[in-house]
Specification:
With 205 residues, the chain is an alpha/beta fold. The chain has helices at 2-5, 19-34, 54-60, 73-85, 98-101, 121-128, 146-152, 154-159, 199-202; strands at residues 42-46, 65-69, 91-94, 110-115, 132-142, 162-169, 179-185. It contains 9 helices and 7 strands. Strands 3-2-1-4-5-7-6 form a 7-stranded mixed sheet, with helices on both faces. It is globular.
């Protein structure tokens, strides 16, 4: 379905020779790591694109509510089409920016929040932390600069009431460069966050 949709909606830069490993396997590995920390009843995936990892999670966890936040309208419509075609009654698509989602019905709500290839970590925390419930988990895949990003995101984590839990590297058979950074949400999101659209990227905490 994604291959057919590629003619009208660009959802990935990953070539067909790498899609199984880079998309499906990495999504599965992310879920495997996240499940060590939380057994979610509600998941929010930020920047879902073509459905990775959120749609994969929904297929594997049919009893879990999965909310896909995707601001690009064409991609959001595609996610709706995919969820209907796959008869995934546990999926809801939100065609809004993460900053808007963090001010709406998803605020302080999810047991697990994920996001792949969205932004640098201190910016990404402002997109994702407001969506997690108190006690909820953030599981965020990052590349080879992960240690530097974690160190630089200390102020953002503290401001957004998140505690750094640890970093787990994906198995080499899946990815030789990706790790998953895990945070725990320790309290409700401060009222001034997330800031208006665009501000997290322009002025990271």
């Amino acid at each position: 379905m994604l291959e057919r949709a590629a003619e009208r909606v660009r959802v990935s830069s990953v070539g067909p020779e790498s899609v199984v490993r880079r998309q499906y396997a990495e999504s599965l590995e992310l879920l495997t790591i996240a499940l060590k920390y939380v057994r979610p009843a509600r998941i929010t995936d930020v920047g879902s694109g073509g459905g990775f990892p959120g749609m994969v999670f929904a297929v594997l966890l049919p009893g879990t509510e999965v909310h896909l936040v995707e601001p690009l309208q064409k991609r959001a419509r595609l996610l709706m089409e995919l969820s209907e075609a796959l008869e995934l009654g546990n999926v809801k698509v939100h065609p809004v920016r993460a900053e808007e989602a963090g001010r709406g019905e998803l605020r302080d709500w999810s047991d697990l929040v994920t996001a792949r290839a969205v932004a640098e970590l201190r910016e990404l925390l402002e997109y994702t932390a407001p969506l997690a419930a108190e006690g909820g988990t953030l599981a965020l895949p990052k590349g080879s600069s992960v240690a530097t990003e974690v160190e630089g995101a200390g102020a953002a984590a503290e401001t957004l009431r998140c505690s750094y839990v640890g970093t787990e590297q994906m198995r080499p058979a899946v990815s030789e460069t990706l790790s998953v950074v895990v945070y725990r949400k320790s309290g409700p999101t401060p009222g001034s966050y997330p800031r208006r659209a665009g501000m997290p990227g322009k002025r990271p905490i």
